[in-house]
Design goal:
By secondary structure, the protein is α/β, with parallel strands linked by helices. It is 50% helix and 14% strand. Helix 4 crosses helix 14 and helix 8 packs antiparallel against helix 11. The chain is globular.
Length: 379
């Protein structure tokens, strides 16, 4: 067999054992740390490292050859990276892998209370449709005949549309020293289950302050309420609120006008000083002074948006307790976990996209070194 190592390929001849009761056994592969393939742990780490690069697998293969003396095709690099991502994802789903910190480490200050913040959001990822799959396979058959078992890439069904919604969750502390993110391709319930498991590893229930800062989407509120009932509060992200306020201001006063900006400032001040009640008062005063049906409709929509999220807008209490009202860390994770997936012209199979997101989450959660250290120890 040809075995890929950090400094190139070597050929190994070894004995393979098989019996009906236990199946195939390769003792030498286990001893060498390549029982799950023909790539060593060190080479796999380098493949995943360059595979996560935004330059893509083709340029990544060139970089790997120059820096690591590992010469592989771009398709082989893709196969190794995605396969490792799927293995990591399987470990996360099974509860064998997760954050290496817990709530006790998240103190606001020495001797102060422990505080863990929580975020959830949704993102869109470009995926390969079923029609594109069929066209690619037809072109492949026309160009060459593929021998059975010679294709490195796994075959997955195409998606129904060009984009698919992924869900992202994050846990973090005030200092930013501790953070953990995860992304799923499934629906809200799948993210909720994964989030509940991660919260257990973090011992979230033991934190003195447990707060979620989110955008107020109904599915997020439902998952937090059912999966994490121990939370002290769900806070509506300030910037999402002000996006709705600004939209109403531009409708009533014109986009970018001084009057619209002044009204937004008044609404923001009322929100910080009096919470939802203060903001609603500002909106209702504007409704009374407005005669345009279209403008009144926009203001009524804003009023309804605020009213149903009143418990999430108690900013005076939140700020008095030192709680953040912005979901910046979660928004940052939404960008970093999907940056590799959203390159120009990129399309992904859904399972492979989720696998790449798992590797990105591993890196941006500061768990990369620990994960690969454990992989070497296991080997």
């Amino acid at each position: 067999m040809s075995h890929l190592t950090v400094n190139g390929s070597i050929r190994i001849t070894r004995r393979v054992w098989w019996c009906a009761a236990t199946g195939t056994a390769r003792p030498v592969d286990t001893w060498l740390g390549i029982e799950d393939g023909t790539v060593s742990v060190g080479a796999r780490e380098l493949c995943c490292w360059v595979g996560l690069s935004e330059e893509g697998f083709r340029r990544g293969a060139e970089t790997l050859a120059k820096l690591g003396q590992i010469r592989v095709s771009d398709e082989h690099l893709r196969a190794v990276t995605e396969s490792q991502g799927r293995q990591l994802l399987a470990a996360v789903r099974a509860g064998r892998w997760g954050p290496d910190w817990d709530a006790e480490a998240c103190r606001v200050e020495p001797g102060g209370p422990t505080r863990v913040l929580r975020g959830m959001d949704g993102v869109m990822v470009p995926v390969v449709t079923g029609a594109e799959k069929r066209k690619r396979r037809a072109n492949r058959r026309a160009r060459r005949t593929v021998r059975r078992g010679s294709c490195l890439a796994r075959r997955f069904r195409g998606a129904s549309g060009p984009h698919k919604a992924f869900k992202i969750a994050a846990f973090y502390d005030v200092s930013g020293e501790h953070h953990y993110a995860l992304g799923v391709s499934g629906g809200p319930d799948e993210l909720g289950r994964r989030t509940r498991r991660a919260a257990g590893r973090l011992r979230l229930g033991g934190a003195e302050e447990k707060v979620a800062v989110v955008d107020g989407a109904p599915w997020i509120r439902r998952q937090l309420r059912t999966r994490l009932p121990m939370l002290d509060a769900q806070i509506l992200d300030y910037y999402h609120v002000m996006e709705h306020v600004a939209g109403a201001a531009w409708t009533c006063f014109g986009e970018g006008t001084a009057e619209g900006q002044a009204w937004c400032k008044a609404a923001s001040k009322a929100l910080h000083e009096e919470g939802a009640a203060g903001l609603l008062a500002v909106v209702r005063d504007r409704v009374k002074a407005t005669r345009s049906r279209a403008k009144r409709k926009t203001l009524r929509a804003l009023e309804q948006y605020v009213a149903v999220r009143g418990d999430m807008l108690d900013y005076p209490t939140f700020l008095a307790r030192g709680w953040d009202v912005g979901s910046g860390p979660t928004e940052a994770f939404c960008k970093t976990l999907t940056r590799r997936l959203k390159g120009s012209g990129m399309r992904w199979n859904t399972p492979n996209a989720e696998a790449m997101m798992a590797l990105a989450a591993l890196y941006h959660s500061n768990l990369w070194k620990r994960y690969w250290t454990e992989q070497r120890q296991a080997a």
